[in-house]
Amino acid sequence: MTEYEFIFSNKPGKRLYRHFAFWLILILHFIIQNLMVGGPNEALKQRSFIDSTFNAFFFFPIYILSVYTFINWVLPRYLFRNRYILFFFWMACLLIFDFIASFYSGALYIHLTSHVPFDKITFDSNKYNAVVNGLFLPVVILGVSGGIKLTKNWYLEQKENERLAKEKISRELQLLKTQLHPRFLFHSLHTVKKHIQSNSSLAANLILHLSDLLSYILYESDRQWVLLEKEIEVIKSYVDLEKKSSKDRLATEINVSGVTSGKYISPLLLLSSIENSFDYFLKDNENNPSLELVITVCDSHLDYQLICTRFLDNPSNAEVKLKFVDLEKQLLCVYPGLHQCEIFSDKQDITVILNVPLYYNNAASNKIMVPENELDELL
Q1: Which fold has domain 179-378?
Q2: 239 sits in which H/E element
Q3: How many Cβ atoms are within 10 Å of 73's Cβ, its own excluded?
């Protein structure tokens, strides 16, 4: 049984162990404390372990009743619902109950051990049991048990919030990864249709490219990591389709260097940056658009540089970065604190520079999509 299971598990067996350990510690503390002190002048004489244990059994049924009433009824019903006046009222009632019950339990203990008649037991002779065992100790025990309950509730709420945050980020990330610009789909299908109608020899290859690309977007994007080789292959298919859609006016250059085999990356990460860049190739212009992509793989990280000619009417840097906001969100979700991203433009070009880690098969399987210690940065 792990520490986490011992503290937080709701299985009956583990809960029993947890509660047994709590009361065992409290009883041992009570017994050790009462080995020397108890009633008036009792610190001057020694009390045996058996006597102290016997004394504990007169008071712990009261503590157990008040503690479980406190944590299972008073806290959930009043404190957790912000009904503070009623909470303090019932707290006072519990303490009054503990005080009265401990006074009579103490009187019974004195009667059984000292053979003093009940009518001879005064408050003076029983005030230690009434005040210390009936008021001071219940305040401490209720405070400790309530603190444990509140701390556990707070921790579980934090874990639930983190789980919900992860689910939210995961859904948003999945949405980002599956976004396919309608313009691309329309132009690609239109291009394929024209080649089919003209009986072009390229029609079959274009259909295969589009089929592979849509299959990758629909099915591979559900995975946490994909092979870098597959992502690069899909990028080439995508660029080829866009090139055909632009009637081969788009000049492209793709350079890949380094060992790409056996390395994993988040799916659609690189593809989304290229897809966004094609928003700048919409209008006719006397200059033909161009796209240059340089991918360099260095051991466990990837350097990525995308340069495309400006093809719209001089948008500002802010407008350019707005086009790539989904890319930055995706990077923040997948590689929080582990990536570099720069997007800038001048009068001629728009440049996207990325640096992200690559994982091998075993390392990728051990990675989580959103590290817990980075959640605060993502929200």
Answers
A1: Heat Shock Protein 90 (3.30.565)
A2: helix 228-245
A3: 12
pLDDT per residue of the chain (379 residues) written in tens, 0 to 9: 677 777 888 888 888 888 999 999 999 888 887 776 555 555 445 567 888 888 888 999 999 999 999 999 999 999 989 999 999 999 999 999 999 999 999 999 888 888 888 888 888 888 888 888 899 999 999 999 999 999 998 998 888 888 887 777 777 766 766 665 566 677 677 778 877 888 877 788 888 878 877 787 777 777 778 888 888 888 888 888 777 766 667 788 889 998 888 888 888 778 877 877 776 555 445 466 788 899 999 888 899 998 887 555 555 666 666 667 777 777 887 888 888 888 877 767 788 888 999 988 755 555 544 333 333 333 3
Neighbouring-strand partners of residue 304: 295, 354
Rounded Cα–Cα distance for residues 263 and 301 (Å): 9
Query: Nearest Cα to 280, choosing from 325, 303, 250?
Result: 250
The residues near 184 (Cβ < 8 Å, ≥ 6 apart) are 238, 241, 242, 245, 275, 278
For the chain, give every domain's residue range.
3-173, 179-378
Label the pairing between strands 251-257 and 290-298.
parallel
Residues 6+ apart with CB under 8 A from 141: 26, 63, 66, 67
**Tokens 């990525």 label which residue?**
304
Q: 138 is written with which tokens?
A: 């219940």
